C-alpha cells in the first residue's frame, strides 16, 4: 500500500495494488502495519456497507460529534463514486476546506478520513457499493451532518443531484456552530 497525503491535514489516500490473472483479482483491503502513518494506534471496531442504486445520488455529509468522533476508511467495491471530505476541526490549518477523490474498484484507492471531518459521496455509476471501516461504534445521539450544498464550501459535485435522503437534505449549513468540532 502506498499512502498519499492530501491538502487536508490527516486525510490520506491509500493506493493498493491489484494482483490480477485469468482467474480474477486479489487485493489487500486493510493492513494496520502499512497504514500506521495514517491510523496510528486506532483499532477498527465496526465495518459498514452501502449500496447506492442511482447515478447522481448523494449521501452525506456525515460525522459523529465528540466524544464519539471516528476515523473512517472508505473503499469503493463496485461502481464509482466521487468521495468528499470536509475539515470541520476549528483548530486545523485546513479548517472548512474539502478534498474529493474518485474511488472505484479499478483504481483501488481508499480515502482515510480522520476524526473531525465530514464525509459524503456522489454515486457516479448506478449500483455503487462502499465498504467503510470505523474506529468508533455508531452512536445515534452523536451523529450529525453538514448540508451537501452549503454555499460557503463551494463543493462542485460532478453530476446533478438525482436523489438525497430527507435526513441528508436537512443537514444545517456551517453557520450553525454544531457543525464545528474543536480539536
Keywords:
single chain, 183 residues, mainly beta, Jelly Rolls, 6-stranded antiparallel sheet, 5-stranded antiparallel sheet, 4% helix, 38% strand
How are the SSEs ordered, and which strands pair?
Elements: E1 2-5, E2 12-15, E3 19-21, E4 24-26, H1 36-39, E5 46-52, E6 58-64, E7 72-78, E8 81-87, E9 98-103, E10 109-113, E11 117-123, E12 128-134, E13 143-145, H2 166-169
Antiparallel strand pairs: 1-2, 2-10, 3-4, 5-12, 6-11, 6-13, 7-10, 7-12, 8-9, 8-11
Describe what this molecule looks like in 3D.
By secondary structure, the protein is mainly beta. It has a domain at 42-105 and 115-175: Jelly Rolls (Sandwich). Helices cover 4% and strands 38% of the residues. The protein contains two helices and 13 strands; from the N terminus they run ββββαβββββββββα. The protein has helices at 36-39, 166-169, and strands at residues 2-5, 12-15, 19-21, 24-26, 46-52, 58-64, 72-78, 81-87, 98-103, 109-113, 117-123, 128-134, 143-145. Strands 1-2-10-7-12-5 form a six-stranded antiparallel sheet. Strand 3 (19-21) and strand 4 (24-26) form a beta hairpin. The longest helix has 4 residues, at 36-39. The model has no long low-confidence stretch (mean pLDDT 94).
